[in-house]
Amino acid sequence: MNARTTRILAAALSLTAVLAISGCSGDSEPKMTVSGAFMPQPVNDKMAGGFMVIENVSGTADKLTGAASPLSDDLQIHETKDQKMQQVQSMDVPANGELRLERGGNHIMFMGLKNTPKVGDKVTVELRFEKAGAVKVELDVKERTYNAQAPTSTAHSGH
């Protein structure tokens, strides 16, 4: 019985070591954080844009591959090149870097809204990444003229 206990203890320690080692290799799976997420109040129920900064706080690159929301059954990833907007299948999120989704640039497009959110509402979105999986985000609905890039010295004083 003593030899059996020793074998069980050795197996348990081996399993613990494997789990600890795999848990310490944090750079093997990307981890995403999102900041500044907002949606300007839509003019109608046809479409709206979603903007945010997605930061990859790991040493592994990833891709934004999709999004879902109760507000629309058709969310698209759009890039803007040469002042032209086009749908793309994915966008790179570099290792230890960020993907900026902003007005006049890359963004999430909500097509065929189920309702028209108002200033002060929150819109739930699930961002989908190739490696990091799903990340839930709440977009604050802002005034139509709101621009997170506006350079003012009091940009964050109200937060």
Task: Provide an overview of this structure.
- The chain is mostly beta strands and 159 residues long.
- The protein is built from one helix and ten strands.
- The protein has one helix at 2-24; strands at residues 32-40, 47-56, 62-68, 74-81, 84-88, 91-93, 98-101, 107-111, 122-129, 133-142.
- Strands 1, 2, 3, 4, 5, 6, 7, 8, 9 and 10 form a ten-stranded mixed β-sheet that branches.
- The longest helix is centred in the first third of the chain and has 23 residues, at 2-24.
- It is globular and about 70 Å long.
- Residues 9-26 and 150-159 have low confidence and may be disordered.
Write the layout of secondary structure elements.
Blueprint: H1 2-24, E1 32-40, E2 47-56, E3 62-68, E4 74-81, E5 84-88, E6 91-93, E7 98-101, E8 107-111, E9 122-129, E10 133-142
> How helix-rich are the residues, as a percent range?
10-25%
Terminal CA distance reads 64 Å
What about the largest sheet?
10 strands, mixed
- pLDDT < 50 runs, ≥5 residues: 9-26, 150-159
The H-and-E topology, N to C, reads as HEEEEEEEEEE
Helix/strand/pairing class, anyone? mainly beta
The overall pLDDT, averaged over residues, is: 83
How many E strands? 10
Q: What is the radius of gyration computed over CA atoms, rounded to a whole number of angstroms?
A: 21 Å
Principal-axis shape:
globular
Question: Count of helical segments?
Answer: 1
Strand content: 35-45%
